[in-house]
């Protein structure tokens, strides 16, 4: 018999919006057990029997994807054991079992890491949280030296911690925003200017939520992250739907297309780097193909500098 899926509806689990419940430890963070449960359910639901070489008796199925017993069989664990894990009880689960379940669910590397973070969370001290927002002087100097490349440093919860002059020309002067609004998730979902800036806004929105989900797996006890998720879930239906999908990914590299109010369309390549000794920070740079129209557009933005007007100059709270 297929299992019944029940539980309270809320934005963290895809239902109607409400303020997120405190975490299991009562500190105001996300509920790690619920996060683990929903992540496993959504990964299982996306697999079909034929995807893993099992017979499909489709007309007898009442839930999407694989049944628990099918997944347990593929992972080589008992149904009772897997059921406890999917109910959020990851206590004492071994790395070997998590590896087997990850293989059975065909998880990506990022999803595998996310599963491990949820099932076997690490403790983070207050000093480490404070250090995660500090920018080393040498890193600030590096940002300033990149005078032809938009670059910024992003930290936990997608907070924008530092940026250079070219980033301000491309994205807007974040220095004019209140500190709380210097946050990529808030800008993407609550500031209409960024919907215009990104040609493929849907893709940017998906990536943003996937990054935030990854962060939530590493820091489910972060009350500020829980508050951010609750705010965006209430204010943005699009965020709420993407958050309920439980998709995760790591920041890496790719291409983004922009529609800048001064120089028109640009196609830029972005790269993301982890500074040594700062595991919770990423340095993100954008560059254009040499000799391309986008390279000329970047050059023009650089000549305007602080006079360039871009969406970040508008407050997200006015959206």
Description:
By secondary structure, the chain is of the alpha+beta class. It is built from 14 helices and 5 strands. Helix 2 crosses helix 3 and helix 8 (165-171) crosses helix 14 (293-304). The longest helix has 18 residues, at 201-218.
Helices and strands, with pairings:
Layout: H1 32-45, H2 68-75, H3 79-86, H4 95-105, H5 109-119, H6 126-131, H7 137-145, E1 151-154, E2 160-163, H8 165-171, H9 184-190, H10 192-197, H11 201-218, H12 223-235, H13 237-244, E3 253-260, E4 264-273, E5 282-287, H14 293-304
How many β-strand stretches?
A: 5
The average pLDDT is 84
- Strand order across the biggest sheet? 2-1-5-4-3
The number of distinct helices, counting runs of at least 4 residues, comes to: 14
Gyration radius, to the nearest Å? 21 Å
Helix/sheet category: alpha+beta
Question: Which word captures the global form?
Answer: elongated
Largest sheet: 5 strands, antiparallel
Please report which band the strand proportion falls in: under 5%, 5-15%, 15-25%, 25-35%, 35-45% or over 45%. Answer: 5-15%
Termini Cα gap: 48 Å
Low-confidence spans: 1-26, 313-319
Helix-strand topology string: HHHHHHHEEHHHHHHEEEH
Which range best describes the helical content: under 10%, 10-25%, 25-40%, 40-55%, 55-70% or over 70%? 40-55%
């Amino acid at each position: 018999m297929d299992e019944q899926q029940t539980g309270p509806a809320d934005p963290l689990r895809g239902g109607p919006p409400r303020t997120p419940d405190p975490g299991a430890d009562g500190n105001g963070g996300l509920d790690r057990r619920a996060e683990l449960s929903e992540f496993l359910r959504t990964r299982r639901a996306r697999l079909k029997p034929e995807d893993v070489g099992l017979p499909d008796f489709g007309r007898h199925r009442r839930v999407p994807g694989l049944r628990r017993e099918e997944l347990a069989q593929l992972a080589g664990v008992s149904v009772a054991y897997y059921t406890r894990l999917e109910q959020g009880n990851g206590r004492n689960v071994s790395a070997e079992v998590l590896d087997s379940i990850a293989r059975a669910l065909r998880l990506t590397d990022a999803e595998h890491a996310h599963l491990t973070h949820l099932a076997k969370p690490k403790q983070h001290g207050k000093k480490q949280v404070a250090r995660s927002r500090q920018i080393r002087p040498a890193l600030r100097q590096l940002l300033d030296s990149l005078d032809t490349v938009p670059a910024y440093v992003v930290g936990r919860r997608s907070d924008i911690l530092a940026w250079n002059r070219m980033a301000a020309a491309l994205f807007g002067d974040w220095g004019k925003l209140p500190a709380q609004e210097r946050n990529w998730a808030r800008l993407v979902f609550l500031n209409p200017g960024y919907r215009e800036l990104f040609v493929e806004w849907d893709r940017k929105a998906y990536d943003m939520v996937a990054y935030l989900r990854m962060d939530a797996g590493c820091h489910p006890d972060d009350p500020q992250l829980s508050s951010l998720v609750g705010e965006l879930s209430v204010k943005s239906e699009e965020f709420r739907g993407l958050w309920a999908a439980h998709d995760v990914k790591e920041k890496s590299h790719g291409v983004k297309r922009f529609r800048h109010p001064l120089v028109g369309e640009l196609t830029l390549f972005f790269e993301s780097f982890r500074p040594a000794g700062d595991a919770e920070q990423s340095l993100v740079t954008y560059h254009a193909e040499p000799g391309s129209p986008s390279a000329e557009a970047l050059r023009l933005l650089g000549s305007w500098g602080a006079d360039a007007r871009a969406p970040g100059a508008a407050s997200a709270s006015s959206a």
